[in-house]
Design goal:
With 494 residues, the chain is α/β, with parallel strands linked by helices. Helices cover 29% and strands 14% of the residues. Strands 1, 10, 11, 12, 13, 14 and 15 form a seven-stranded mixed beta sheet that branches. Strands 4-5-6-7-9-8 form a six-stranded mixed beta sheet. It has a two-stranded antiparallel ribbon with strand order 2-3.
Length: 494
Amino acid sequence: MTVILGTPKAKVHIPGAPCNASDAPPLSTLGCGSSRALVTAAVEKAANATSELGWPDPDFVLFTGDAARHTSPSPEDTLEDIRAVNEIFEEVLSQRGTPLVKLPALPFAVGNNDLGGHYFLNVTSDEPCLPSLAEDGSMILPAVTNQWLADMADRQGDAFATELEESTYACGGYLSRRVDDRLDVISLNTAVWVLKHVPKPTASGLRADPFGQLAWLRVQLENAREGDRKVYITGHIPPILAYYNQEMYYAKDKHDAIYDLVAEYQDVVAGMIFAHTHSNELRRVPGLPDDAPPLLLARSVGPCKGSDPGFNIVKYDRGATFRPIDIATFEMKMSGGAHPNSNVFSNSNNNAFYLEIPSVVEYLGMDSLTNGETLRLAGRMLPSSSNETTTNGDDIWDKYYGTWFQGVMPRRDAGYRRMSACLVACGDSYDMWDTCNASVAEMDIGVACGLGVKLDELAGESNTLSQDTANEGMQLILSGCAIGMIIVLAVMCW
């Protein structure tokens, strides 16, 4: 990995940050991308984090994309960043013996910074990347359709579990990994579905289904149903409104298509995990019942956008549902709790990742990690009146947005709180969010979102899974700021 932090090449993401100063802190600081030392520290802490919680060893690791830096100098530098992040995972996790699910780079999952240009990927096929059978019964692997995706696959080395997995990724930038006899993880190429994607496909088929990904996804979900397996759907960019400008990430037809598939296969989809936003978030999933899991978003490892570096571990049921039960969050404090726009930067730190929240469900006062409880959570974050500015007020607001979200204290004015609570409740649709945001302060948030249900009408217990269920599993989630680093681990932003 090319050393960028502390050199003139380093990107200054927030004015005043010492990213290109010769004495830039080794672990980076707010407004700067990650250093190799920071990424390594995150992966090392994550590899051993479950022992601190008293939880079982992790079953697998998700990296949700953006391994490369923001504004990479060249495509070659992007490929090198992806290779280097893969190398860190290999070095650290192979020593730990953790089974690593490399939901490979664009990297692991395709991030918008992992391409030859920002959001740039030529769509060269509308055929799903599926194997076929030769006359002699042997498998014919999907053919390479895009040189950039082929180069990405090449930089992943031995990250792929099978030839089919690697060839599928080289063909379309997506893949499916069997992590358990009863569980698959699907990593999507979300970069081709977003409004910022360039260049825009010209042929109707390419526009309708870039790389045949929707058709491929339907096949994977149907195969999982027939095989009595559950599925986690992951990727870099989520199908939601962005919290910072309340605009849709996805083109509407792709946004509707993914949620239609999730609703159609709700008996199969155990959860959805994304990143890109540099923030921990819960979003109620439309079209699913109250006992279904919400969409999970993971904070970034890279502090480039002003969030404290962090990663999450998700506890999930390994019995019948495979749904998430709880989340533990680790962070490295760089902000001192200050808002990122306060321009408070440090040129030195001796920080380390520490366990910030051992149980997000308990911390936020939720009964379970479900759609219904996420709606209740949104309702509790609302101000009690339209003019409330609160200095000592809503404990849940301060816990969600002041601690768990990005590690920095948000605004507390009533308008900002309503806008943010409505994103949690119905932030998948601009029309529903806008109606909620414009509603009077006293209106029930379920009614304000047009959901046709009041909070007090929800079932009292929306998840039958106990926090101490005997059938628990662990997912390690990291995210990077070029990453994303999840490391879900997400977003690095070198």
